[in-house]
């Protein structure tokens, strides 16, 4: 009898502990990070410093038409999913020929069929682009939209160092790719 009571007590305690540890389900659009230099945190060399870091969420294509449908042309987009992407410049840089002071910003875009507007905005920590305010734009540049031969299933941002203090930040999803010139 004593063994039975002890066993029931342990089972009850285990059930209470398990129920107390509830977490939200895994997000459908996981958070990711893009660095310049690319893969900086993983491949960091002694003395090397990050130049840019972008936090963004990665929505999936899932057999949907993306640009011009799920993400409408001509409207401000959060550049990913969930919260607006966060763009951190560790030093003064130039994006598309325009100067940007070191700091932390939001990254928005206005997708177009042939041209995108890249927006660096001073507002932080907003869900989507619902509270976007153009008056807080710090920088806007236009870049050409291109086509990728392969479908990119999950929205992705990747940096490529071109040497001579020059790089390109690529945004890709579905068959669309956008390249943004960066100088540092």
> How many individual β-strands?
9
Q: How are the strands of the largest sheet arranged?
A: 1-2-3-6-7-8-9-4-5
> Rg from C-alpha positions?
22 Å
β-strand percent reads: over 45%
Flag low-confidence runs.
none
What are the secondary-structure elements, in order, as H or E? Answer: HEHEEEEEEEE
Spell out the key features of this protein:
184 residues; mainly beta; 9-stranded antiparallel sheet; 47% strand
Note down, in words, how this protein is organized.
- This protein has one domain.
- It has 184 residues and is mainly β.
- The protein has a nine-stranded antiparallel sheet, with no helix packed on it.
- It is built from two helices and nine strands, in the order H-E-H-E-E-E-E-E-E-E-E.
- The chain starts with a helix and ends with a strand.
- Strand 4 and strand 5 form a beta hairpin.
- The mean pLDDT is 90.
Structure at a glance:
The protein contains 2 helices and 9 strands.
SSE inventory with pairings:
Blueprint: H1 2-20, E1 31-36, H2 40-43, E2 52-57, E3 81-89, E4 93-95, E5 98-100, E6 103-110, E7 115-121, E8 137-163, E9 166-183
Antiparallel strand pairs: 1-2, 2-3, 3-6, 4-5, 4-9, 6-7, 7-8, 8-9
